[in-house]
Amino acid sequence: MPEFTNDLTHDDLALLLLLAEKRSLTRSAMTLAWSTPKASHRLNHARALIGDELFVRSGNSLVPTKRMEALVPTMRRALKRSKGFSLKNDSRRWKLTVRSFSKWSTTPPPCFSRRRCPH
After folding, report:
1. Whole-number Å distance between alpha carbons of 101 and 87
2. What is the pLDDT of residue 5?
3. In Å, what is the CA distance from 65 to each residue of 41, 59, 71, 88?
4. How far apart are CA 15 and CA 97, in angstroms?
5. For residues 37 and 25, what is the distance between their CA atoms, to the nearest angstrom?
6. Are the C-beta atoms of 25 and 62 separated by less than 8 Å?
7. Structure confidence by residue, pLDDT tens digits, 66-118
8. Dist. CA 73–CA 78, nearest whole Å
9. Which of 7, 21, 37, 70 has the fewest CB atoms lying closer than 10 Å?
10. Which residues pair with 57 in a beta bridge?
């Protein structure tokens, strides 16, 4: 399971928008091909970051709070902007973090040349 950060991810935004639309954690999780517990953890993470319940149970459905309703347009814009994102076209500098470098250090580095690789 990924570590939680102090940010909402693209997937978190997708979950929150699906919840606002479907009003069901199980159906939203299924749409994202997630387990219901994973969706529940991500919803709780979003609640903690935003400082609001975001959704309250009413019968068999989850109803967005006033705060969540106000955030929906902003979340939709943010999600729409992120769909066209590509590292290939991004000029910013990125840092790659590897958790288990020892696995990589025992194999030769990748060769990206059409010429014969030295190893």
Report:
1. 22
2. 60
3. 18, 15, 10, 38
4. 26
5. 9
6. yes
7. 999 999 999 998 888 777 666 566 666 666 555 555 554 545 555 555 555 55
8. 9
9. 7
10. 62
Q: What is the 3-state secondary structure (H, E, C) of 33-80?
A: CCCHHHHHHHHHHHHHHHCCCCEEEECCEEEECHHHHHHHHHHHHHHH
| Token pair listed for 97 | 């973090």
Longest dimension (CA), the chain: 66
Amino acid at 100: S
Written as one letter, the residue type at 104 is W
The CA distances from residue 36 to 24, 26, 32, 42, 68, in Å, are: 10, 6, 10, 10, 20
Phi and psi at 57, nearest 5°, equal -75, 135
- Number of residues assigned to the chain: 119
* Token code pair at residue 42: 């991500």
